[in-house]
Amino acid sequence: MRTTEYRSRVYTDRPDYADFEPGAKFQAIESIIAKRLTEHPKAICSYSGGADSDILIDLIERTRAAFRLPPVKYVFFNTGLEMKATKDHVKATAAKYGVEIQECRPKVNIVTAVRRYGVPFVSKIMSAGLEQWQKKGVPLSVADEYSEAEDKAAKRRELKELYPGCEQVLNFLCCCNSAGEPRPNIQLVINSSKYMRDFIGECPPDFPISARCCDYCKKQVAHEVQKDFEMVITGERRDEGGMRSVPRKDNTALCFTETGSGQYRLRPLYYVSDDDKCWYKYQYGIRFSDAYEVYGLTRTGCCGCPISYKATEDLEKIRPYEPNVVKAAYNIFGKSYEYRKRYNEYKAARLANEARGILPGQMRFEE
Fold first, then answer.
1. How much is the average pLDDT of 61-79?
2. What pLDDT, in 10s, does the model give residues 9-24?
């Protein structure tokens, strides 16, 4: 029987302008910004100092000038592990556009958050799943039970009874949804990272894994600052992957939504591709921060965050310019870097053995 591949709303609910050429696409986005700022003038925008934020603030200020719209409140969330290049760029950007970009810091710093909750690993989705797996103690063998079951829906109900309060962990490990329907190709499951379940079975992590440092150092601060505004504007793009390409309760598949609290969220760049960004940068002469233009990074954020697959590679690019922030990143995230290296080696070994026709049971990963 031929089955249809499951596709999330991010890919099925696409507005027409998502497939426009860059010039027409950004013209459509400017119209969206103008419409929403007219309807909801009390707006706040998160500015990170990264490339997406540079495109976003230029779009907003260009649109505001063209349509004579009221000012937007800009905020920069400093996690405590930011490059000097980023902080300098935030100040330069504020001066360029003649706006204030308020700096906000967390109540719980990143060192405390990581020590208290755990270290990020691979992605926010993977970190959340492994955090719950570590806490709940659900055995990895549930995935084999589910996989081998003829009636997968019945097996999923059985597992729910055996492990109450573990719905998300079971879905994560078994690569399915709560109804027992297989979902092997979505990002919310452990096999979104190849061989991950086998790897943690053979090489269990000896440190707590969690991405809650982001919650405490950025998201909670943002919610507090944004709560009194009618509309929140962010630079999320679907092409960044991870959680930003997964539909959530606030319907992230659309660039403009209303939350349960009645607040509106505008994501003007959601359908902007990397090529679109490049076009805009050269069309309007945007200069990104030194982190991009001098250090050679392709992405910024919390310096050295292990969620980036290039974290250690990027740290070496930063080291000649800002050695102290690199040292701090290794002190905070070092265990995750080491574990990611082991996972990469394990994955490479598995792929090489499969290419030679060697089955998993015939090989042994050497630590």
1. 95
2. 555 667 889 999 999 9
Tens-place pLDDT, residues 296-323: 999 888 899 999 989 999 999 999 999 9
pTM of the model: 0.84
- pLDDT at residue 175 is higher than 90: yes
Superfamily, domain 9-113+212-297:
HUPs (3.40.50.620)
pLDDT at 35: 95
Domain ranges of the chain: 9-113+212-297, 124-192
CA angle 242, 267, 109 (to 5 degrees): 60
